[in-house]
Design a protein that fits this description.
By secondary structure, this protein is an alpha+beta fold. It folds into two domains: about 140 residues, Fructose-1,6-Bisphosphatase, Chain A, domain 1 (2-Layer Sandwich), CATH 3.30.540; about 120 residues, 3-Layer(aba) Sandwich (D-Maltodextrin-Binding Protein, domain 2), CATH 3.40.190.80. The protein is about 35% helix and about 25% strand. The protein has nine helices and 14 strands. Strands 3-4-5-6-7-8-9 form a seven-stranded mixed β-sheet, sandwiched between helices. Strands 11-10-12-14-13 form a five-stranded mixed β-sheet, with helices on both faces. Helix 5 links the parallel strand 10 and strand 11. Helix 6 packs parallel to helix 7. The protein is globular and about 50 Å long.
Length: about 280
C-alpha cells in the first residue's frame, strides 16, 4: 500500500517546523557551481527527511536536490524501487533573505510517475497534497473546479512568469505585449504550482524546472483539474534530470487559450534572428 497522505504530511510539517523555521533568514549561505544558492537549512532539512522517510518506509529510495550529481543520475536511471523525490527547501533565495515564500516538496514516484505529492509552506502552515486519481486538497479542504476568466478573456488573467529562463524572443514579446492582465514571479516553483491549483492566479510559464521542482506540484495541479505541458506541447513530467519548460493553467479551457497564444508568439532563437517579430 502507498503511504497515507496524512502521515506523510505530519512528517514533512514537523521537520519543516524544527529544521527550517528556526533558521529562517539567519543562516549562512554559499553559491553552488550552477550559480544557485544553498544554505545550512537545505542540507539539514534534506538529512532530516531522508532519515524520517527511511525509518517509516524503508522500501523506497531517496533522491534529494542537494545530493551529488552522480547520485541524481544513478537514482533516475537505475533504481527499480519507488523513489522519494525531494526538494528540501524550494525558494532558497527567498528564504535566505527573509522573503516568506518557500516550501518543502516531496513526491513519491512509482514506475517512473508521481503517485503522491506533498508541498508544505511552513510560513502559512499550508499543506497541499494529492494522490493520483483521488483528488487534491489544501490541508482539509478539497481543491476543485475553479471559475477564472473565460478562455477568451486571457487579458483578465493573473499570470506567473519566470522571465530569466525563457527564450529571449518570447520574453521580449511578453514584456512588450503581455496577453494577460498582470504578472508576478514568486521564486519557489513547487509552491507556484500549488497556488495555481488553488486558483490564486490563472496561467503559468516557466522556462526550465528540474524533476524535484515539479514532481509534487504537477500532480497536485492535475488532480485539482488544471493542465500543463511544455512549450513544445509535450508532457512536463519526465523521469530524468533534463530541465522541462512549463505552460500551465488552472482549467483545461484556459490552458488551451494560453497554449494558442504562446504557439503564435514563440519561435526559436535562430528563426527570430531572421525575422522581425515586431
Amino acid at each position: 500500500m502507498l503511504p497515507a497522505l496524512d502521515t506523510l504530511r505530519d512528517i514533512v510539517r514537523t521537520a519543516a517546523r524544527e529544521e527550517l523555521m528556526p533558521r529562517f533568514a539567519e543562516v549562512a549561505r554559499h553559491i553552488k557551481h550552477d550559480g544557485s544558492v544553498v544554505t545550512e537549512a537545505d542540507v539539514a532539512m534534506q538529512h532530516r527527511l531522508m532519515s524520517d522517510l527511511a525509518q517509516r518506509w524503508p522500501e523506497y529510495d531517496f533522491l534529494g536536490e542537494e545530493m551529488a550529481g552522480h547520485e541524481h543520475e544513478r537514482l533516475t536511471t537505475t533504481t527499480s524501487k519507488g523513489l522519494w523525490c525531494v526538494d528540501p527547501l524550494d525558494g532558497t533565495s527567498n528564504y535566505s533573505t527573509g522573503i516568506p515564500f518557500f516550501a518543502v516538496s516531496v513526491a513519491l514516484l512509482i514506475d517512473e510517475r508521481p503517485e503522491i505529492g506533498v508541498v508544505y509552506d511552513p510560513v502559512r502552515d499550508e499543506c497541499f497534497m494529492a494522490r493520483r486519481g483521488q483528488g487534491a486538497r489544501l490541508n482539509d479542504i478539497a481543491l476543485g473546479v475553479h471559475e477564472p476568466p473565460p478562455p477568451e478573456m486571457l487579458r483578465r488573467c493573473i499570470a506567473v512568469v519566470d522571465f530569466k529562463r525563457l527564450q529571449p524572443t518570447l520574453a521580449a514579446r511578453l514584456g512588450a505585449r503581455p496577453p494577460y492582465g498582470s504578472q508576478r514571479n514568486f521564486g519557489a516553483s513547487s509552491l507556484e504550482w500549488c497556488w495555481l491549483a488553488d486558483g490564486r492566479f490563472h496561467v503559468y510559464l516557466h522556462g526550465g524546472q528540474k524533476l524535484w521542482d515539479y514532481a509534487g506540484g504537477h500532480l497536485i495541479l492535475d488532480e485539482a483539474g488544471g493542465r500543463a505541458c511544455t512549450l513544445e506541447g509535450a508532457p512536463v513530467f519526465s523521469h530524468g534530470l533534463t530541465p522541462r519548460s512549463v505552460v500551465a493553467a488552472v482549467t483545461p479551457a484556459l490552458h488551451s487559450s494560453w497554449k494558442i497564444w504562446l504557439h503564435e508568439n514563440w519561435m526559436p532563437d535562430a528563426a527570430a534572428a531572421e525575422k522581425d517579430i515586431f
